[in-house]
């Protein structure tokens, strides 16, 4: 265990991570390899320790968002294929080559720019099948085929991204199936041109959970790897995944306020009777959403207590009236379990009107220590 628990911290359970990998791999079709998405500091969990742990249990395919995320992993001796999902300026092609990183081709013009570097670069071609973000448009069969003619580009993958695979609404299912059809039509077109098809990948976390029948070479698993789903919405498949991250802090002051006294900025909360409050050393600068002011909860000594007033940059305040024994130094759980009570990342994200992907990736890498534990007791 490394790090500090003086103020606020994120506890990362590596046993839960390994269990999630096992569960997800068992759910994948035969021959499909898990590609661990560790962008945004592994969704706030710590990209380097997470990736090294995954390496040790046999995961050798990773996805990041930026070249610098990829370089960080290489410098810490992460082995295997590392795919950059986002755009990298062609001016940094030498770094792609030096660090043995695979780059996503975002369109045919970009492929030509990379090809001009003059040395081999590993790439995956992204096909835009309807999301209208990155990728060469699926209608441009000839342009996609021409990328294979770039002599300095070593095409080791072709993929697309399903933009509503998380939804079970009828219209969204129809759109997703249309995306899948468009992607396979591209593959058929490439075969007709006698182009050998490299490894393909379509599914992200929700692709696996809602479209498990798809047979691919890789499945890009992000949020589900960490035992969390983006929202509280149901999925077609239900896997027994365990949250990897718990968010914790400490009580730094307990005081009694009288009826009529206000709490915090803007005097947004006024006590209607005498009450006991706890000041807790975590705030929105640590990544805990300010939008949970006066509507969120935390756990202290197994009790669920409400947040009152406006969440500050560095502290928040909770109502602990009627709860004995809480004192300075008492541990506060903001995400995770305490006794029989639990607050999940999905619940917090719902109340904050966002998704867990944003919630977790915004947890401060600077202010919040990551405490890595390896306990199967949380399973």
| CATH-assigned homologous superfamily of the largest domain | Alanine racemase
Largest sheet: 9 strands, parallel
Q: Roughly how much helix do the residues carry, as a percent range?
A: 25-40%
Output the structural class: alpha/beta
| Level-1 CATH class name of the largest domain | Alpha Beta
- Mean pLDDT reading: 96
Radius of gyration: 24 Å
Strand content range: 25-35%
Number of strands: 20
Q: What is the rounded distance between the termini?
A: 19 Å
Mass-distribution shape: elongated
If you consult CATH, what is the topology of the largest domain?
TIM Barrel
Number of structural units classed as domains: 2
Q: Spans of 5+ residues with little confidence (pLDDT < 50)?
A: none
Number of helices: 11
CATH architecture designation of the largest domain: Alpha-Beta Barrel
Describe it.
- By secondary structure, this protein is an alpha/beta fold.
- It has 2 domains: 14-226, TIM Barrel (Alpha-Beta Barrel); 245-343, Lyase, Ornithine Decarboxylase, Chain A, domain 1 (Beta Barrel).
- It has helices spanning 14-27, 39-44, 47-56, 67-75, 93-98, 108-115, 141-147, 170-192, 205-210, 345-351, 356-361; strands at 8-13, 33-37, 61-64, 81-84, 102-105, 121-128, 136-137, 153-159, 199-201, 218-221, 245-257, 262-263, 269-270, 275-280, 297-300, 303-308, 316-319, 331-338, 341-343, 369-373.
- The strands form 3 sheets. Strands 2, 3, 4, 5, 6, 7, 8, 9 and 10 form a 9-stranded parallel beta sheet that branches. A 6-stranded antiparallel beta barrel has the order 11-14-17-16-15-18. A two-stranded antiparallel sheet has the order 12-13.
């Amino acid at each position: 265990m490394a790090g500090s628990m003086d103020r606020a911290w994120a506890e990362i359970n590596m046993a839960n991570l390994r269990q999630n990998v096992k569960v997800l791999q068992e759910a994948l079709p035969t021959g499909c390899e898990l590609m661990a998405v560790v962008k945004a500091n592994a969704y706030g969990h710590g990209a380097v320790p997470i990736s090294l742990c995954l390496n040790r249990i046999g995961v050798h395919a990773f996805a990041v968002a930026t070249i610098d995320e990829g370089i960080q992993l290489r410098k810490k001796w992460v082995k295997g294929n590392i795919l950059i999902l986002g755009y990298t300026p062609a001016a940094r092609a030498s770094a792609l080559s030096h660090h043995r990183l695979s780059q996503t081709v975002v369109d045919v013009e970009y492929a030509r720019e990379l090809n001009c570097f003059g040395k081999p670069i590993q790439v995956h071609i992204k096909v835009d099948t309807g999301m209208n973000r990155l990728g060469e448009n699926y209608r441009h069969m000839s342009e996609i085929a021409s990328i294979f003619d770039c002599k300095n580009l070593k095409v080791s993958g072709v993929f697309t991204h399903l933009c509503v695979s998380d939804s079970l609404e009828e219209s969204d299912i129809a759109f997703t199936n249309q995306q899948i059809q468009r992607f396979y039509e591209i593959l058929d077109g490439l075969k007709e041109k006698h182009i050998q098809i490299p490894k393909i990948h379509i599914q992200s976390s929700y692709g696996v959970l809602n479209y498990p029948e798809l047979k691919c070479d890789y499945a890009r698993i992000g949020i589900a790897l960490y035992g969390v789903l983006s929202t509280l919405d149901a999925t077609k498949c239900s896997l027994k995944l365990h949250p990897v991250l718990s968010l914790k802090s400490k009580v730094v002051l307990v005081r009694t306020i009288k009826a009529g006294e206000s709490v915090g900025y803007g005097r947004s909360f006024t006590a209607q009777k005498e009450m006991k409050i706890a000041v807790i050393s975590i705030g929105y600068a640590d990544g805990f959403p300010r939008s949970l002011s006066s509507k969120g909860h935390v756990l202290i000594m197994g009790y669920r207590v409400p947040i009152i007033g406006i969440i500050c940059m560095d502290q928040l305040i909770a109502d602990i009236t009627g709860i004995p024994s809480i004192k300075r130094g008492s541990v506060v759980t903001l995400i995770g379990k305490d006794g029989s009570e639990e607050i999940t990342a999905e619940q917090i994200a719902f109340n904050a009107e966002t998704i867990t992907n944003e919630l977790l990736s915004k947890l401060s890498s600077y202010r919040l220590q990551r405490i890595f534990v390896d306990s199967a007791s949380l399973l």
